[in-house]
Design brief:
about 35% helix, 7 helices, 8-stranded mixed β-sheet
Length: about 230
């Protein structure tokens, strides 16, 4: 797997940061992004800055202890959450954290997005579970994501937001968009009387469409309960 140069990674972070801000997935100084540029180096957004208004000189290089080794600003205060994802899965090369309104509303309500309702979600990211609450910027945060990030490329952070991972930053960002799209559709469906999950048979057909060696562990969505017949 080819890693991006620091210049390529920087361009990617600036572009995705602008997309996140312009699409309302972050506001003010919310959110953070990172790209792994070597075995023990990551390029990450700084703390306290708008992700749609960054320049190359604002970005920070850290080691896997979260220590700054390049750049003049301080890295995001949630750097350890990113580092834990990189430590747990070799296939992860980029991390995105944001606060998209609909998905974050589900996170605040303590509701995972795991029902089998949208074929595109089932084929691509499987499901969107809920990680337990942890105080941001503390040692609790990396511990809170450990179990979900081992098996999922996208998940809700309880009372906090959304985190997605990928083999590149654009892929991780696309998953963020998909999570917000799923959350919005699920919310609207509930206003119309509730979503109607796909059948077990339909879900199994969708599983067969998944690409071998895809972008992550592909967790399954929560299948409808099947009554035992005696």
């Amino acid at each position: 797997m080819r890693r991006l140069s620091i210049e390529e990674a920087g361009d990617s972070i600036l572009e995705i940061g602008k997309r996140m801000y312009s699409h309302g997935l972050v506001v003010a100084t919310d959110g953070n992004l990172s790209v792994r540029i070597s075995e023990d180096r990551i390029l990450v957004t700084p703390t306290g800055m708008n992700k749609g208004m960054l320049s190359r000189s604002d970005l920070v290089v850290t080691n896997l202890k979260g220590e700054r080794i390049g750049g003049s600003r301080e890295p995001t205060s949630e750097i350890k959450m990113h580092i834990r994802a990189y430590e747990l899965r070799d296939d992860i090369q980029a991390v995105v954290h944001a606060h998209p309104p609909y998905a974050t509303a589900f996170a605040v309500a303590g509701i995972a997005l795991e029902e089998c309702v949208l074929p595109e979600i089932i084929v691509s990211i499987g499901s969107v579970p809920l990680a337990e609450y942890a105080t941001p910027a503390t040692e609790e945060m990396p511990r809170s994501i450990e179990e979900v990030v081992k098996h999922c490329d996208a998940f809700l952070l309880r009372n906090h937001g959304v985190m997605t991972v990928g083999r590149d930053l654009l892929g991780a960002y696309h998953k963020l968009e998909m999570v917000e799209h799923l959350a919005k559709i699920t919310f609207i469906a509930r206003q119309l009387g509730g979503a109607r999950p796909l059948s077990v048979e339909d879900v199994k057909k969708l599983y067969s469409l998944r690409e071998p060696g895809g972008t992550g562990p592909y967790p399954g969505c929560r299948l409808p309960r099947v009554e035992n017949k005696t």
